[in-house]
Design a protein that fits this description.
heterodimer; A: 280 residues; MetI-like fold; 11 helices; globular; B: 289 residues
């Protein structure tokens, strides 16, 4: 009797189902992207398998018609500000939560979880109303503030376990050698925290660029990021050529793809919630 | 005094929490409370609870709860159930694993508009799929895949599955493979190993995965407009909340609908967490540390 399971030659029906689903999903995704890319590169596409002829002018048209130079600038400004501020506010809080076990710690953690568990519409509409009353409606500041609501908790929830892994004796050793709190933060913790902050920052960046609802509720003319401009264009079809909307959607996908590849090269996606233990 | 506080973990380090807590109060709790109070000060109706009474009296508004749940629950269930066998097959190390994960996660970069436009082009009456079906003689008239319930459900699967899959994969990674090997040593077959060892350990993680996928699906908004039938089948609660606040300029009613939306969502989360509390929660590692 052999105790070690032998590899099965014939896959079980469940395995077929699983791989079949993966295959179907990937083919469908590919076809979906191809449909948009082909349309964005076609001249006129009526009742045929493919457009009559191919051209790239829709990309230039889209860039000009939708003023994408300034839209991109707004998008980058919002995303950069949200990443910087959420790290600035979130990382010190994560440090306190990771290092001190004070009464009410669980309650504070729970409070930071709530904004991530509520749909953005729920707090987005009241927040937009408040921003309007304080003359921040439709401003860049308002959009940044709204996007910070889920981002700060996200940083705290990802950074707290990260800091817990860092041996507190390192800080204690530095302190016995005469380092003050500020020195410890800059010279000891800072370098150790960089990988975690990079990962959390990139994930916040991806989330913010893709965050539709909050930006949609709070943005006004001149403070609309790419997702919002794209939605307005798609929502009012017929105003602009369908091809130039598709071209803009492809530009958006390219931007997000770049960010995701960058994020995935710093974060191992399978280690998001648990440490993978390699086979001994 | 200071030392006694420090023994309970209270010292100056906690000051680092202050900016985050202040931020949460000013940007989240205050607007939320403001919205809650505002929802009890109706602009168009009379009475403290008038907004809520109106919402539940008008089937056009009331039914949005059932419509949204009717989309979000099946989508979240499907995403979680589909990701279990896929993630289970991919839990070990194999060549090209990182690439395959990357490809499965890629749809999160597409954005609602590209997915919507792609679905309309691919599955529309003159799209590639209908064209193929017509030419093969499988159907006589184009099948209506989009601009209805199914179009939105499909979008929720496309956007939600990668997310559920990633979470499930990382929960599976947290289960010690030695447990399955131990079961195998004791004579358990593959089926038994999955259902009696891995699955019970995975279940609490699946509950969390369901909650997070449900949160995403319940908030469905742009795709319900673009690939759905926003006046009927896919009139989700976000749409009526948005219309009240931004098209009828009734911030009070908008806030009331937002509060109802939050309450329904938290109720579902609470039910799932309640069920989760009855499941096994303990170490999923081996006996030796």
């Amino acid at each position: 009797m052999s105790a070690i399971p032998r590899p099965r030659v014939v896959a079980s029906p469940l395995a077929w189902l699983a791989w079949g689903f993966v295959g179907f999903f990937l083919v469908f995704m590919l076809a979906l992207i191809a449909a948009v890319v082909v349309n964005s590169l076609g001249t006129r596409w009526l009742d045929h398998w493919l457009p009559d002829a191919f051209t790239t002018h829709w990309y230039g048209d889209a860039w000009r018609e939708f003023g994408l130079t300034s839209v991109m600038r707004v998008t980058i400004e919002i995303a950069a500000a949200v990443v910087a501020l959420s790290l600035l506010i979130g990382v010190p809080a994560s440090y306190a939560l990771a290092r001190r076990d004070f009464p009410g710690r669980r309650l504070v953690m729970l409070a930071f979880l709530v904004p991530l568990l509520l749909p953005p519409v729920t707090y987005g509409i009241p927040l937009a109303t408040v921003l309007l009353r304080h003359d921040l409606g439709g401003t860049l500041t308002g959009v940044i503030l709204a996007n910070l609501v889920p981002s700060v908790p996200f940083v705290i929830l990802t950074m707290t376990p990260f800091i817990e892994q860092i041996d507190p004796r390192i800080e204690a050793a530095a302190r016995t050698l005469g380092a003050g709190t500020a020195t410890i933060f800059v010279r000891i913790l800072g370098p150790l925290l960089v990988p975690g902050m990079l990962a959390a920052g990139l994930l916040v960046l991806v989330r913010t660029v893709g965050m539709f609802e909050l930006s949609f509720f709070t943005a006004g003319p001149g403070s609309q990021p790419l997702v919002v401009v794209l939605y307005y264009a798609a929502f009012a079809p017929g105003v602009r050529a369908s091809q130039s909307i598709d071209a803009m959607a492809v530009i958006y996908m390219g931007l997000m793809l770049m960010l995701l590849v960058a994020a995935l090269s710093f974060v191992n996606p399978t280690n998001l919630v648990a440490r993978l233990r390699e086979n001994p | 005094m200071r030392r006694r506080l420090a023994e309970h973990g209270i010292d100056r380090t906690l000051l680092l929490l202050l900016p985050a807590v202040a931020f949460l109060v000013v940007i989240f709790l205050y607007p939320f409370g403001y919205g809650l109070v505002l929802s009890f000060q109706p602009e168009r109706y009379v009475g403290v609870f008038a907004n809520y009474e109106h919402f539940f009296a008008d089937p056009f508004l009331r039914d949005t709860i059932a419509i949204t749940l009717g989309l979000a629950v099946p989508a979240a269930l499907f995403n979680v159930i589909a990701s279990v066998p896929v993630a289970y097959r991919m839990r070990g190390a194999f060549a090209g694993k990182r690439l395959l994960i990357g490809m499965l996660v890629m749809p999160v970069t597409l954005g609602t508009v590209l997915i919507a436009k792609g679905l309309l082009t691919l599955l529309g009456a003159r799209g590639w799929v209908n064209r193929g079906l017509l030419e093969l003689g499988l159907v006589d008239d184009p099948v209506r895949f989009v601009n209805n319930y199914w179009g939105v459900l499909l979008t929720l699967v496309i956007t939600g599955f990668p997310f559920a899959f990633l979470l499930t994969l990382s929960y599976l990674g947290g289960i010690d493979p030695m447990l399955e090997r131990a079961a195998a040593t004791l004579g358990a077959g593959p089926r038994q190993r999955f259902w009696q060892i891995t699955f019970p350990l995975l279940l609490p993680g699946l509950a969390i995965t369901f909650i997070l996928t449900f949160v995403l699906a319940f908030a469905v908004f742009p795709s319900a407009v673009l690939v759905g039938e926003p006046a009927g089948e896919t009139r989700v609660i976000s749409i009526v909340a948005y219309r009240a606040a931004y098209e009828q300029f009734d911030a009070s009613m908008g806030s009331a609908i937002a509060m109802i939306m939050g309450a329904v969502q938290l109720a579902v989360v609470a039910v799932v967490l309640g069920v989760r509390g009855r499941l096994y929660r303990g170490p999923s590692g081996g006996g030796k540390g």
